[in-house]
Amino acid sequence: MFLPFGALKRPLPIRFSIIAAALPALCFAQDAPASATEDGMDVQCQIRTDETSGFVRLDAVAVSNASITGTYQLQVVKRGTGGSSQNLQSGRFALAAGRPEVLSSVILDASAHNAYAARLDVAWDKGTRTCTTP
Q1: CATH number of 43-133: 2.60.40.3710, 2.60.40.2420, 3.40.50.460, 2.40.128.90?
Q2: pTM listed for this prediction
Q3: Are 74 and 105 in contact (CB under 8 A)?
């Protein structure tokens, strides 16, 4: 039976009041994003940007605290007055512990300044990471 709000005439017992007070926090609580997997492996990715000599260079970089192998996918979309272009690169990688590794690079012309978006997806047997820019 559904009772409208305020229909209860007597106060709830203390244990129900505690549960009722905690319920919103339990329903909306989210774990903070973790950078390490359950086995303690920490894999990070980054899209480095270098704008020099009339070009925009994007480097897809990954680093891990343990040696791992996996796959990556780098997607770059550039929009301009003449239309748009999309570049998709993917492959396998092997990371040595603690050594940042450039997985792939894309070079765009200067007109790409503030007119591109890039996404890097890194996957290995224990998880995935995604990085974007800008």
Answers
A1: 2.60.40.2420
A2: 0.68
A3: no
